Amino acid sequence: MGATQHRTPLDAREREDLCDLLAEVGPDAPTLCEGWTALDLAAHLVLREHFNRWTDAKMAAAKAKGLPALVDRLRAGAPLLPWCIPGLRSLLNGAEYLIHHEDVRRANGLGPRAGRPDLDEAAWKTSRLTAWRAARKIRPHGLELRTPDGRARHFGPGGGAVLTGRPVELLLYLSGRRDAADTHLTGDPEAVAALTNTGA
């Protein structure tokens, strides 16, 4: 990873890389978002950043512009407020683009990205909120996240479900991409069943 790439915020890098991938796979390529093609995903991202609720009519209108136009709109960047406020941009857009980049990659036969500790760091930060939401759904059981390098986070009482994997994989699991996430779920059988039965 070059020095220039290091200086570019992760959300901007993920945006540009996702735009490249969308252009490469084409509008009809599948994604991990059930029922959505690459065109649907691009339309969603454009509408989201411009504070439009993505009703069926607005989605249809956005998709009618075609994938190249939507990708060009995404490449142009988000509106200045609030997306470009330092600190908020990573919170608002970092995980969004990371997850949706993986949605397109993995649905089209591209596996996890190696040698990208920046992605894992971003995912580890974001996983705090997604894991907290998942843990609320399985009360009174607890949830623990573990990574191969020995990091751990606990939510609720001990002795519950234990989800192990690289941070990006944990984030994918917790955001509903379970089948695509390279994770291992162990722990108390009741807690494991509770987590498995949630939409997390």
From TrEMBL:
One Pfam family here? MDMPI_C
Q: Which residues form the MDMPI C-terminal domain?
A: 131-193
Alphabetical UniProt keywords: Isomerase, Pyruvate
Q: Which GO terms describe its molecular function?
A: isomerase activity
Its recorded name reads Maleylpyruvate isomerase family mycothiol-dependent enzyme
